[in-house]
Amino acid sequence: MTTAVVKLGVGNTASVMFALERLGAPAILTDDAICIAEADRIILPGVGAAAHAMHLLQTKGLVELLTTFPRPLLGICLGQQLLYEDSEEGDAITLGRIPGRVTRLAATPEAPSPHMGWTRLKPDHDHPLLEGVASGAYAYFVHSYVCPTGEATVAIAEYGERFSALVARGNAFGCQFHPERSGPAGARILSNFLSLPC
Fold this sequence. Notes:
- There is one protein chain.
- By secondary structure, the protein is α/β, with parallel strands linked by helices.
- The protein has one domain: Rossmann fold, CATH 3.40.50.880.
- Helices cover 25% and strands 33% of the residues.
- The protein is built from six helices and 14 strands.
- The chain has an eight-stranded mixed sheet. It has a four-stranded mixed sheet with strand order 6-5-7-11, covered by helices on one side.
- The longest helix has 13 residues, at 183-195.
- It starts with a strand and ends with a helix.
């Protein structure tokens, strides 16, 4: 079972690859559309701006592939945001796998933006991604835009406002946090994703 990690030139790809290696999961870091299309599952990591990331995906011929990929797809951080229909960040049209619009995180004196650090995950309902993960487990976040809560929400986080921290719709999944940097809870969520049927 091969996992393709999408190489955009932006994002935490090295730490994602190390995390997969620790889990004993065969993975390839690539931007080749054929390799990605043939993979058993895809991880789409990302750090940076939504509009720029979508431009890179378009340039590499990956937008339609990621929109229609029929097996498990996991977006991490910006990668989760790209699963939604559009984003306030650069007024970007994104992949449309999950309904809703990504919005800027409201900054307050008590919760300045960007949100950087450890925050609890609060499950919304049971889901295979959360198997073996304690309710209230901490995950590591770095972001300044948030995904709305809705039918796709698996777990929420609170930082000035409530937002979707973990999402699932069909075979598209997302972590707003960085599972590869979130200790045992993050490793378990990654392992659960790798165990999902193709």
